[in-house]
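Dear colleague,

As promised, here are the two records you asked about, laid out in our usual form so they can be pasted straight into your sheet.

NAME FIELD: protein one
SEQUENCE, THEN STRUCTURE:
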Amino acid sequence: MTDLFDTYLPAASAAYGRTLWHQYRFTFRVVKPRRTRLGDFRVLPEGDTFITVNADLNPHAFLITYIHEVAHAAVHQTLRKRGKPHGRSWQTAFQRLMQPLLTEAVFPAPILEPLRNYMARPAATTSASPALMLALRQTDPTATTEPAQAGQVLLRDVREGQSFRFAKKTYVRGTMRRTRVVCKEVVSGRSYAILAHALVDVSE
């Protein structure tokens, strides 16, 4: 477990991330990238809690996602009942857990300013803050936050009804639903909710 925190989190935050793991006693896994989520919190049938974070996030995006999910664990441990997943209890827990990390020792200045603005009223996903997503993409370009290549744009910027390529499949852009876009996969005809900030290929 030590290797996970040292490997995936910014160095200055690894010890804190490990402390939260000990405090809230959840199973933690780093998993293959998923189309519709960056992280996940679950309560297993026997009552154990389980957190996953996508492996392709850069360290700063990984840390934000990790703390987001730990906030769910904190709320669950305190309330022991279901409420709004991203309601006031979660927002308060997220803000409290993020507060020690809001320094330039952990986040570069270009990320820190939009991150502080986002944390004033955190939403269900960081894609709700375009400024923060852009800062994460530009300051530490890897995998999920890599800069767009020729012909690539953010899904949210594709016009409705336009076709695009994503994960080696062709889709038609549908309607926006909060932080995701409902898109139809051409071959199967099935609809998928894809994150609005995903990079897609619109080149002919």
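NAME FIELD: protein two
SEQUENCE, THEN STRUCTURE:
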Amino acid sequence: MDLFQDLTGTFSVLDIALTLTLSFVLSALIGWVYKKTHRNISYSQSYVQTLVIIGMVVAVIMLVVGSNIARAFALVGALSVIRFRNAIKETRDVGFIFLVMAIGMAVGTRFYILAAAATVVILLVTYLMQRFDWFKLDIQRQVVKVQVPPDSHYQQDVADVLVSRTHEFELVSVETARGGALTELFYSVRLKPGVTTAELIDALGEVNTGQKVTVLTGYDQTDM
């Protein structure tokens, strides 16, 4: 045991085992709740596994750093060379990354009860928000993409259709397509009761010379 103590420095083998085990259990619990509360199509198994790895790695880093300022600056310099190139698809994913980092820091600095209590409370709040749809916006909106010839009166014709079939609409962006032969209009709209997306597509198809019309429907923010 004295040999292991010499090899590990300021922390014991029990500290190492407890840190790795607790950080794994809590990070895996966070990953499990993330999986159960995930709704959209962007779920990634690799992301959840990365959450577990981050939690354990941060715990080890904090165990190594301890209260040694020189080690802390050395690790900051070493980690500054890392570049993450995968874009985060949902804002809640960032929250889970910060959560596993915070739990890893708490475990690595041996605040075991704080780490366990914070994990349970935060995950409970996360589950309740998903289960009871906290802060849900009940108004359903659609994103409408219409291709029209570049003549200005076509945009007015599209606007007339939207006036008759939506409560409100907003022109989000205008882009060129097919080398300038067409113009793509992006609208955010809220349909009137009784108006279906199929009816809206048919009406828009009558005024845009048969060009492509796309309607994206959903409660969540749509990436155009």
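A couple of things worth noting about protein two: Residues 3-7, 219-224 have pLDDT under 50 and may be disordered. The longest strand covers residues 166-177.

Best,
R.
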